[in-house]
Amino acid sequence: MKDDGPQSAIDRCFDVTIVGGGPAGSAAAIWCALTGLEVAVVESAKFPRHRPGESLHPGVLPILRQLGVGDQVEESGFFRYPGQTVVWGSEPAFHAFGNDESGPWMGLQAIREKFDAILLERAKSLGVVVLQPCDARSPIMEGRRVIGINSSKGPIRSRWVFDATGRRHWLGRRIGGGIYFASRQLIAHYGYANSRVKNRQLVPRLEADRDGWTWISPIANDFYAWVRLPFQHVRGRLEPPPRELDGFVPLGPTRAADVTWRLLTNAAGPGYFVVGDAMSVLDPLSSHGVLKALMSGMQAAHLVRLVRRKGMNELIAIRSYKEWSLQLFQHEVKNMRELYARLPAEYDFSLS
Question: What is the CATH T-level fold of the domain 7-81+108-183+263-341, as seen in this structure?
């Protein structure tokens, strides 16, 4: 994807500058643009860029249609599946998503390089200015208010800045936003592999054992993704591919991500909103990472539209978003704690 950021773009004052061009940032950009707001997206990486694959619940499709990319995502050739096999301190059981008169509901195993590009191209088609590659270096402050960013292409002024940079919490760490931790440190390890046998496994499988849980999913007929979350993290150690993938050909190295449960306590403030993983993080077992990204981007965009177009008091919008993000996080944490509590007592797992 080419650099679409002419020098003239940074001489304008935008309604919203979004740092990060992943699902949260692109969803926010699309939702803002659909309501007539002027938007710039600053993305540091060239596309296509590597990101872990994502399992998308069928419930995400109505949101993707609202964003104008539902049909394109469904026609993109992503692996489709009706549910997953779960072994969670019990015998294997198949958990279906559900069905209606049209047949079973089908999830998608999205390849993020392709999924992210679809969303960002949709934003560009709506007139969003995409500066890529472009690094966000620091927020521009006027008193306590964020009024833009300093970027590698120069200063960009805007009425609001959205941080959609993910787990590194780019803006929160620079303006002193506190982080609330709801678990001990959790590190997820993941990778990809090729099978020489097509259609070897037709649905994703999640299995817990005494030392951790493993998720394996086909992405295409002979292309698999895996995630391993050990219950006890050993610093500096990368987990090997699961034994179920013995004989497969690894595609690239094993990678690791910090998935400690955490929430940025100041997810909104004067002139800014924080969305997606920059707002909160849970481990992949929640399976709602992309859904949260899309919803938080759209929620922040909706509140900015109410302030900009409908005269809502900004302080009310800020309070509303912080309450929404807290309630969402608390709900997700409750569900996750209940899920982990179902593990047998002899399993070596503790959240504290």
Answer: FAD/NAD(P)-binding domain (3.50.50)
pLDDT tens, residue by residue, 289-338: 899 999 999 999 999 999 999 999 999 999 999 999 999 999 999 999 99
pTM for this predicted structure: 0.92
Domain-wise residue ranges, the chain: 7-81+108-183+263-341
- Give me Rg for the CA atoms of the chain: 21
Residue 132 contacts residue 46 (beta carbons within 8 Å): yes
HSE, CB side, 13 Å, CA atoms: give it for residue 120: 31
In this structure, the chain runs to a length of 352
Residues 6+ apart with CB under 8 A from 223: 192, 193, 194, 195, 251
List the alpha helices (DSSP H) in the chain. Answer: 23-34, 61-66, 70-74, 112-125, 170-175, 289-310, 314-341
Q: What's the CA gap between 86 and 216, in Å, rounded? A: 11
- Cis-peptide into 133, omega within 30 deg: yes
Q: Nearest Cα to 205, choosing from 176, 221, 188, 228?
A: 228
Spatial neighbors of 331 by CB under 8 A, at least 6 apart, are none
